[in-house]
Amino acid sequence: MITPDADKISAVSDDRKINKRVGYYMTLAQRDAPVVTPGGGGDSIKYYPYRDIEGGFYRVLSNVFSDVTLLKSASDQEALDKYEVVLIIKPEIRTTSQSSSIVTWPPTDFSVELSCQITDRSGKEVAATRVTGQGKAEFSEFVSDFSLAGKRASFDALVKTQDALLNLQELRADR
Known about the structure:
By secondary structure, this protein is an alpha/beta fold. The protein has six helices and seven strands; from the N terminus they run E-H-E-E-H-E-H-E-E-E-H-H-H.
C-alpha cells in the first residue's frame, strides 16, 4: 500500500480556500486496477494507486475548496444538482518504482505523477494540473515499512497538487 498519512497534509487558511463546490470521480475500474512496477533484486511490487491515494486526494480537495462531493461519474446529474457542483475534477495517477539494491525487494525510489483534469458541468476544460511526487527510502528506514518510498512519493504528490490547485487563477474566476 502506498497510502500516505493524510492527517499530515497541512490545512489551508480560509482566506486561501477557493469558494467553489467541486465533485471528483474515480471509476471503479481505476480503484480496482492493480499496478505492478519493479522493486529490487528483479522482484516486482503490486499495489492499487487510486484506492491507496483517494483518502489523501479527498483531504487535499477539502483543504482547497469550500465543498467536495464524490461523484459516481462525470455526468452524475443527481449529485451535481443536489450538491450544486460547479467544477468536476478527474484525477489520473501514474507510478514508477525501482531499487538500487539487488538484495532487497522493496523499492528505494518511487514516483507518483498525479494529474487533475478540471472541467465545468458542461464538460468544458477549465484548468489542469500535473505534478510528480518523489519518494526515497533506504534499507535502514524501510525495514519495518516496505512501502515507505511509495508513501513518501504519494504524500509529496498530494502536497504538490494542493499547492498547484491553490495557485490556479482559473479556479478563482467566477463562472
